[in-house]
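Service request form, structural biology core

Requester: graduate student, group of Dr. S.
Request type: structure prediction, single chain
Budget code: on file
Notes: please return the result as structure tokens.

Sequence provided:
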Amino acid sequence: MKIAFKAVSDVGRKRKGNEDSLVTNPEQRLFVVADGMGGHAAGEIASKVAVDSINEFVCLTSGDQEITWPFGLDDTISYDGNRLKTAVRFANRKVLEATKEKSEYEGMATTVAAVLVDGASANLGHVGDSRIYLFRAGELSQLTSDHSWVNEQLLNGIISAEQARTHPLRNVVTRALGGKADLQVDMQTHAVKPEDVLLLCSDGLTTMVPDEHIARILNDAGADIDAGADALVAEANARGGEDNITVLLLHFAE
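Core staff response, request fulfilled:
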């Protein structure tokens, strides 16, 4: 399966710096988006450490199944699934180590949404409220479930979807890299088809642009993922651009 990709990261209209980071590694078929949190630009450090560490581990394990696995192997998922899951946990360790380097780094953390493609299988790893969507045949499906306080209230039926969209605590994340050592990584595998599009994004897109509008923009763009990514960022900014906006589109073809 061939992959075309387009990545755009924008500071938005309200923030002075960009605390989002991303990695595109087409050789390893690895794609990652991270949204950092923390004062004094520490969020930027956390997200950069995370994406670089994930990329480092995936590269390190390419073609070398004899390497030492720092957290053991999960026999319920594939080899590439293990590569990605371990890479995220490895990145969590690196972020935790970085928090000790300077006092202003204390408490910094980051979300991660990552895809590692193996043939026609996309391995997804996810922590926090950055999201991964599948756009297939004109339909948009959210594949990840936010690790956030608001989403937990929504899933428990305490608040409605409309309340969740505008809730003052909607940015409170309940799981992130840099939080604790025994990080849980949500893993899943999806079979991809020709003309499928995967969207990885920070919440700077999804808090500004409803899913139905994301679907419309992707439908209008079709296979032109350059135009689609630019249009998604432009729409988030047009609606206020209250946070950094990172969009990464993957288009699959035979």
